[in-house]
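thought: fold this chain, then report.
action: predict
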Amino acid sequence: MSGGTRRPLGRKPARVAIVGAGPAGISAARELIKSGVAVTLFDKETASGGLKRYGYPSFRMPSSISEREAAQLAEQGVEFKGEAELGRTLQLADLERGYAAVLLATGAPVPSRLGIAGEDLPGVYDAPRYLYGSRTERPLPAGPRVLVVGGGDTAVDAATTALFLGADEALILVRRGEEGLAAQPHEIKYARDKGAAFRFWSVPTKIEPGATADGAAVMADGAAVMAAGTAGVPAGRTYGSLEVPGSLEVTIATTQLAGEPPVLAMTSQVSTERFDTVIVAIGQSRHLTFLQSLGLEVADDGTTNRPGVFVAGGTLYGSQRLAKAIIDGRRAAQQIAGYLDGPA
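observation:
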């Protein structure tokens, strides 16, 4: 595509706008500053950090890391503008007019869905939303018994966060065997040490509202429940409506192998269990519809159909991996520097 083939003339010293002050955006900003390019970082949050600040439990990634990083960027001359959300308070066309190049590094905001009945019920959260809430003044209520679906680092983080915030139990459902866990071994050990349990070869097939003794669905206004206090959430604070503990019934299918090698039989056991909260952590993808609404066609290398507009990090490939985002931010910075220098 044309994103890296044309050079805007008469724009020295060049100034680049980076939308998304997360790992990819910050990595790109550092590289561009080294090249003598002025950088303005935009983010919808009031503070920079992105995935580092809001996507990990505080005991794994304390806010002080992002704060120290922000101070270093400011010392290097990077300008930060918070509460700037692309498509709302910030328009791509304005950035194109005001900057020599634009990098979109807003992350992978679209959580993957289970595709089962009940996943839109109150008390069912996607993991990024749950982890984000745990790092803000408005954590999402969990209750004593939490079910997490997924086998990666984010699933493990969600489980340990729920336990850290006061849950009594956190069960992680993994659709493969233990050898198929994508989470890092030390994170798995940490989760187990903190009390998280794993159930392998298992998937949820249906989520339903729980019922009281008389069969009525259990639901309560947040204010009433919060007055009494809920595990992980200070009493007296209201976060809208939430489920009463034990108000989600989840049907779980578990595959089992029976017999002795080489003759093995595969069976499936189905159970219905009650949980207060279900957290879905099966991945994220890039927001293709949003990119298309901006009039962007994005190539695999991060260039676009708009000269001077580039895409990096989770916005490009959908992953939430920290190291991958940092590396891709550097790649994008080199790409932008080449664009600003013009053809050889």
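thought: worth noting. The domain at 2-109+284-341 is CATH 3.50.50.60 (FAD/NAD(P)-binding domain).
final: tokens above.
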